[in-house]
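help with this record:
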Amino acid sequence: MHSPAAATRKARWIVLALGGALLVLAGLLLARSRAAPAFRGPARHVIFISLDTTRADHMGFYGAGWMRTPRLDALVAESIILDDYMTVATTTLASHTSLMTGKYPQAHGVPRNGFMVPADNVMLAETLRAAGFRTAGVLGSFALDSRFDFAQGFEHFDEQFDTLVGEGGADQNQRDAAAVTDAVIGYLGTRPASDNLFLFVHYFDPHWPYAAPAPYDQMYSPDNGGAGLPIEEHPALRLAPRDAQTRRQLAAYAGEVSYLDAQVGRLLDDLRRRGILDEALLVVTSDHGENLTENWGRPFDHGWSVYQIEQRAIGLIRLPGAARAGARVSQLVASIDMAPTVLRYLGLPPPQGADGVALDLARLELVRPVEFRFGEASKPWEQVETDPRWFNLRKPRCVRSGSFKYIRTGYLNREELYDLDRDPYEQRNLLPAPAEDVGAVADRLRAALDEFDRAAAPPATRFESSQREETLRRLKALGYLGGSESSP
């Protein structure tokens, strides 16, 4: 006869055994639930590759025959090309928030880098996670750091920056393209192959200071005995001659773009090898361009203007199985259209409160016509004469309709009008002596921008101040602060 103590021990053993069996069963059920994708639709995966500060006119497939971008040029043969794609903001955080929400900055509430992404925005990662996707982001820059709440909706968010570029060599605030690609490949090796995946990859390399590794640092150099590629074909040099130092910087930027192209190619190879690429809806874009001395604003910088050198961006969409390969869209498409386009293709509801319009990827046109498109700059950082409705109302702002683009810079009391078909680098302002028909166009665009400005209703945000000094130091190291911007 067993003692009461022995009976108690036996009962406990039975409970533990049953508990262990239940855990094993739960694990098996979970594994079985993972065996089939949680989301069933035309694409099993969604991949966004963002090329920070990368000008469209430095891509071979956009006509830059002097540039070497072989991997992206090859991707074009499998993709839909957006020939006229614009970003609605010319700095990183505001632009990417528009990309992920489908909203203009004055609707999502992020005026510039260093501010918080308001929580009432519904980010693309949140929508896809709710639909059954695993969500992962890998960053190349502190500008999108999770402290600014850009990571809303991401389960995995890799922001392990390793390049020391801050004042005194103290700040770890970015990493180069090879490190970003390594991090993505490492993550892909750990995830269950059966999962749906939303992957956001952010590369940062063509950002000042331009310092690509060898051999890309000398690929376009005017100082290497003529062995470099034909930098003389650079748009800035076609517009006007430049001094030797400027030429070296133009060559250095081009080298960064070619290095970035190679690393994106390495990532695409891995995605293809794993079978992910052909089951994915892939979007490749840039958040904005860079002023390389062609127009007003600070040279080798961005955020100061809404000229095409900063606002025209890269737009590629690769469908599963490379459907519609090589098709081109001539209609103007904006960054706020990307999230609506992806969700429509997947059969999911459009982003909440989106300003953007979905591109029908079967008919290759927007689902409804859009008469006006708007854009804004975020610099100067220091307090210019502000409008209480929105931080950026007095900074450079623009409206596009057809080939015409109207720009107003409130704090300088300046306005401009360009015909982009005839003047793609905006060298001839039509307003000083406008023809009658041009004056009518200016009036229509001016009124549209006035109405857009009046509609500004941003949610509340704040500069991220819990680690204020570190935030300011890092943003300054990335070139995002200058002058008297120490009091955001």
Summary: Residues 396-454 form one domain. The chain is about 30% helix and 15% strand.
